[in-house]
Amino acid sequence: MSTLGITKLTCEYRSEPLGLGTERPRFSWQLTSGRMHVLQSAYHLQVAGEEGDFAGDHLIWDTGVVDSDQSVLVEYAGAALQSGQRCSWRVKVWDQQGQESEWSDTSYFEMGLLRTSDWSADWITPEPGMIDPQAEEEFLLRKAFHVSKDVRKARIYATSLGFYELELNGERVGDWAFTPGWTSYRHRLQVQAYDVTDLIRSRADNAVGAALANGWYKGNLAWENHRNLYGDQRALLLQLHLEYADGSTEIIGSDPSWKASTGPVRMSEIYHGETYDARLEAGGWSQPGFDDADWTGMVKLDHAKDILVMQENEPVRVIQDLKPVTVLRTPEGDTVLDMGQNMVGCMHMRLNLPAGTAITLKHAEVLDSRGNFYTGNLRKAKQSVTYICKGGGEETYEPHFSFQGFRYVKVEGWPDAEPLNPDRFTGRVMHTDMPQTGRFECSHELLNQLQHNIEWGQRGNFLDIPTDCPQRDERLGWTGDAQVFVRTAAFNFGVAPFFSKWLHDLKADQREDGGVPHVIPQVLDDNACSSAAWGDAAVICPWTIYLCYGDKRILEEQYDSMKAWVDHIRAQGDNEYLWNTGFHFGDWLALDAKEGSYVGATPRDLIATCFYAYSTSLFVKTAEVLGRTEDAAAYRQLYEKVAEAFLIEFVTPGGRLAAHTQTAMILPLMFGLVEGEVQRRMAATLAEYVKEQNHHLTTGFVGTPYLCHVLTENGYHDLAVKLAMQEDYPSWLYSVKQGATTIWEHWDGIKPDGSFWSDDMNSYNHYAFGAIGDWLYRAVAGLDLNEAEGPGYKRIRLRPRTDSALSYAKAALDSMYGTIRSEWSLTDVDGDGDSPLASYEFEIPPNTTAEAELPGASIATTQVNGQPADQASGVLSAKEDDAGTLKLELGSGIYRVTVQQPSPALSGA
Fold first, then answer.
1. What is the pLDDT of residues 415-464, one digit of tens each?
2. Can you tell me the distance from the alpha carbon of 454 to that of 471, in angstroms, rounded to the nearest whole number?
3. pLDDT of residue 832
4. pLDDT, tens digit, 9 for 90 and up, residues 289-300
5. Is the dihedral of CA 410, 415, 419, 422 positive or negative?
6. Residue 35 domain-assigned?
7. 377, 407, 573, 647: which has the highest count of C-beta atoms within 10 A?
8. pLDDT digits 0-9 by tens, 24-74
């Protein structure tokens, strides 16, 4: 007998979250069963007090038995939740056969501070007359206090203007980095919640300490050496909430009674690095009993509290450690550590050197053609970390308030008499703590390395916001980069909270006229906004998150922003149905650009009008999902007018496009602006353009993400495969052959002769061109969703392509419902290459269904789990269509499918 079970309970995508800011949290769970084809038919969910007692008055919300198959993002609808309230919850389910599960294990969630009135603490900063607000040094703040009773529960709620780190009784509070994160600080500032119950000493003296640095708030940002973009004073806001065993409570907050000094961090900037003088450490500064008599006082800072929001995204953390793979001695005589991987984070050092010894680490992504340390592409960013030893034994250090993008680390100042031991150095990989959800592998090792590079490009650039690059004097949330990569991103990692938080900032920074800045948070000049394919992130990103996670709330939250962006486009130019005015990046970094230009040859008004149509079409779908019928009808009419205007303006009556680039063909095909004979002709023309380039691309940021998809969907999958497998310039695998471990900004960031593209803009960790990953998962491995029938992979579409010049390919995705797998392999049983045996393995999680499409297969030639295809358990139907494709309707379970079919000879594997 198969037991129906429940696992992986999450609240707002997280397991037992602390400090939630949403007053209507959403619950998700996954079903387990050993039986095939299991669907949820009903659920019963209960929320109770923190004791986990679901009886009587302890019950806060009881849904009763709800006839529903919904197991993802079920919204709380009970009595209003209160600030700091901790709740337990559990769920049970029934399947379509009426089998009832046991209650799940009990899970928990806890609310943060939900209202401005919850804050009694003051914003505080050191007395300006005693400590210069513009000082480069970190500020150390402390407060001693006595706890007179037994503590049952203790929470700290904290935020800052600038970066902060907390200590309590000498121990670091939490393991988060770069708090409070980067948001649109004028409108939104995140608060972090910490459980410090185990750090508090009952009936004893205690002390809390905070270190403050410039961070994104007032440090150096962008390439014009701008500072103090949000304010010119660092400050702390903190409340320690104590709940005693007798039921009484106490709040200890930041106020002018705190004391301040400067610390051993003498300089800390995101771009430039950190200088730390260990001789200046004040031992025990966050301990009770520390003598702070010579520390200065604090003053209140008048700053808003109504902008405070609880932490929305997963925090940045140290995710893994890397050890140097070798120590190099360059031709110029430098000692360089090779980490073997272009990474983002910092270096940890263990030292035992005399007092006053200064060790400087400089960070770079690549070596030059002679093997020397190269930092030209960093522009003004110094990426330099200096540690001055205090002596007297082993010391450890890693930067506190700065991160670097690097593979190579030059070590300066190491004593000649002391051999440099690489074991004393560790690379600390840091990024937003997103769970890895997607995996892809195939028989082509260079494609596997490409997948590795795509993942590491995302790791390095998804550091609180989706940055374009992590090393030079930029590291900004470019909207265009984010929107072209969002679908790939949502496969590799769980990014729903990440993008939700960033899109809230996009909405906050959006102009009154609906224009969208080029970067979010906005730190460029006021005119840096509203380029086609960049501003369209306002629509494309929320829609994609909805598709991949089934999250309607993100559409609700961003709806006005999405609408305002479409209306902004409509207001441009002299024709409301064409977008032919304003600044546009065009097909950025396309290879068909004029000499000395970054902008490709595709007409920018063509690109802009295509994205105008695309964003309008997505907004129509959004309105339909949310039941906004009037908007859906009105904007559907707008879309039809834009599509019509596009054809009149850019397509001749004979079906020729009035532009002759690959990207010009790609966009109308991808966005469905052409159909019938015009579509066939345009696809054929695109194929010819690719062949004329000797099966190479010429596309930039705008065309590249869609190129292989368009070829595959229009009958040119073989050409898409040739493009993906090219190894010479320009191609995805060119950089892999050059030794890349992340995605490059330029196709020829390092030229075949070893020379570099211009220092002006040459990142070796720039994820945009990694959007090819989406095609690998969906087209090659065949793991996709059915948008119309079930977003969030409720309804799965499996379309593996065995004609991909590989002997096997496989993809797996840990969806909201559980793991989905699509794998295929070809075995040349007869040795003649003419009719290899095709084998597939599919995994479908409970509470979902899938349709598998197997070209060239038939019911007669196909077995599923050793049974005829139309008789196997879990196969709901098996049908052959007129195109010679077998379509299997599958319930949940694992399916091993074998097909004896004519297939291309194995090649390219």
1. 988 889 999 999 999 999 999 999 999 999 999 999 999 999 999 999 99
2. 17
3. 65
4. 999 999 999 999
5. negative
6. yes
7. 407
8. 999 999 999 999 999 999 999 999 999 989 988 889 999 999 999 999 999
Catalytic: 474?
Answer: yes
**455 is an active site residue:** no
Residue finishing a domain among 745, 778, 811: 778
Amino acid identity at 827: T
CATH code of the domain covering residue 174 = 2.60.120.260
Q: Examine the domain organization and report whether 166 and 81 are in the same domain.
A: no
Scan for tokens 């491995």, then name that residue: 781
Whether residue 579 is found in the same domain as residue 643: yes
The DSSP result for 220-250, as a single string, is -BTTTTB--SS-S--EEEEEEEEEETTS-EE
For residue 512, tell me if it sits in a domain.
yes
Residue where a domain stops, chosen among 432, 453, 487: 432
| Separation between Cα atoms, residue 275 and residue 388, nearest integer Å | 8
Q: Which of 138, 314, 474, 843 is catalytic?
A: 474
What is the dihedral sign for C-alpha 144, 148, 151, 153? negative
Calpha distance 156→46 (Å, rounded): 28
Marked catalytic residue, from 745, 823, 843, 851: 745
> Do 854 and 731 share a structural domain?
no
Angle made by CA atoms 820, 825, 828, in degrees to the nearest 5: 165
Report how far residue 543's alpha carbon sits from residue 551's, in angstroms, rounded to the nearest whole number: 9
Q: What is the DSSP string of 604-647?
A: HHHHHHHHHHHHHHHHHHHHHHTT-HHHHHHHHHHHHHHHHHHH
Name the one residue in this structure whose structure tokens are 């949502």.
490
Size (the chain), residues: 909
Looking at the 3D structure of the chain, how many domains does it have? 5
Confidence (pTM): 0.96
**Which contacts of 797-802 are long-range, i.e. CB under 8 A and separated by 24 or more positions?**
797/850, 797/851, 797/853, 798/822, 798/842, 798/850, 798/851, 798/852, 798/853, 798/890, 799/852, 799/853, 800/824, 800/840, 800/852, 800/854, 801/712, 801/717, 802/826, 802/838, 802/855, 802/903
**Cα-to-chain-centroid distance, residue 879:** 39
Angle at 648 between CA 646 and CA 650, to 5 degrees: 60
Task: Give the pair of three-digit tokens for residue 447.
Answer: 């494609």
Asked if the bond preceding 180 is cis, omega within 30° of 0, the reply is yes
Does 496 fall in a domain? yes
The verdict on residue 271 lying in a domain is no
Tokens linked to 510:
């959006």
Could you tell me the residue range of the domain that residue 391 belongs to?
316-432
Residues 199 and 253 occupy one common structural domain = yes
Q: Are residues 608 and 710 in the same domain?
A: yes
Domain identity same for 458 and 560 = yes
User: What's 655's domain CATH number?
Assistant: 1.50.10.10
Same domain, 395 and 442: no
Spatial separation of the C-alpha atoms in residues 207 and 209, rounded to whole Å: 7
Is residue 213 scored above 70 in pLDDT? yes
- Regarding whether 729 and 594 lie in a shared domain, the answer is yes
Rounded CA-CA distance 666/904 in Å is 27
